[in-house]
Write a structure and sequence with these properties.
alpha/beta; seven-stranded mixed beta sheet; single chain; 43% helix
């Protein structure tokens, strides 16, 4: 049974994703590589009046249970697979599909994962350091913070968390406090490394960047994004599209680089610059503020 949470997840940039993914089509087969709770899938099916075929993947079995319930009215049009997007080829094979008309990736962490108890994604909850999107994998956030060398921790906090000034101090604080078992342990180690004046003036919580960095490392998110984007063009029909929504400058940079490299032979870039959410959407959903969308078309 899925865990419940209080705040409903809102899929970001739905209007923009539909525009670039469908390109005006009302039929076709599409892969939502990060199905989440089914928000984007539901929007595609509504826009196509249920005529599209959707293959949805999510590595998180608990959030996929929610998607299945949310999409119950479209059972004939949707196949859901508990797989990482890096394994989309397995889903296509099982669905009996060779090529599709579009791929969508929304690579942000979901509200469910942040809010559901026991997952260890949030500094707001005191629980075991986990942060696994795939609950069957062995490595957890506790393994990262307790086994990585100080230099390794500093590097991922600097690069993946964009924690420019205090990465080394945070890494040193983590190492000095080992073993860390809970999200509170990690929160307190970060707090000890950042001066009070700096903590208070930040617009976002001072632990956000380090928690993000550890999560990215635990789930190998950047490597997975790049390998997946490089494989996708070979599974697109001519005119088929890739749409990626990212929330981190490194993720967006990977998409930009791969699209540019593939534009020499396989892809036509549809977004010269990343598309940003509207002011209205950001006002309704603060999570959308860092979202960036890029799209390309198979030639």
């Amino acid at each position: 049974m899925s865990r419940q949470y209080d705040e409903r997840h809102r899929s970001v940039m739905i209007r923009e994703a539909l525009h670039y993914l469908l390109g005006g089509r009302l039929t076709g087969t599409y892969v939502d590589c990060t199905a989440g709770e089914g928000g984007h899938i539901g929007a595609v099916l509504e826009a196509t009046k249920g005529r599209a075929k959707i293959i949805g993947l999510d590595v998180d079995s608990e959030v996929l249970d929610i998607a299945e319930q949310n999409l119950k009215d479209y059972r004939e049009s949707v196949e859901l697979f508990n797989l990482s997007y890096v394994d989309f080829e397995i889903a296509l094979k099982q669905a009996g599909v060779e090529k599709v008309d579009g791929f969508l990736l929304d690579v942000g962490v979901s509200t469910f994962q942040l809010k559901a108890k026991g997952r260890g994604f949030s500094y707001e909850l005191d629980e075991p350091l986990d942060m696994r999107m795939n609950l069957s994998q062995k490595r957890t956030a506790a393994d990262v913070v307790n086994s990585y060398k100080e230099d390794e921790l500093s590097k991922i906090i600097f690069e993946f968390g964009d924690e420019k000034r205090f990465a080394r101090k945070i890494a040193r604080s983590i190492v000095s406090r080992r073993p860390l078992f809970t999200t509170k342990d990690l929160h307190d180690a970060i707090k000890a490394a950042i001066p009070p004046a700096e903590r208070y003036k930040r617009r976002r919580h001072f632990a956000t960047k380090t928690f993000q960095a550890v999560r990215i490392e635990v789930n190998q998110e950047l490597e997975n994004i790049e390998s997946t984007l490089r494989k996708i063009p070979g599974f697109l029909n001519q005119g088929g599209r890739i749409v990626i929504i990212s929330f981190h400058s490194l993720e967006d940079g990977i998409a930009k680089r791969v699209f540019r490299e593939k534009s020499e032979s396989e892809l036509k870039i549809l977004t010269k610059k990343p598309v940003q959410p509207s002011k209205e959407e950001v006002e309704l959903n603060l999570r959308a503020r860092s979202a960036r969308l890029r799209a390309a078309e198979r030639i």
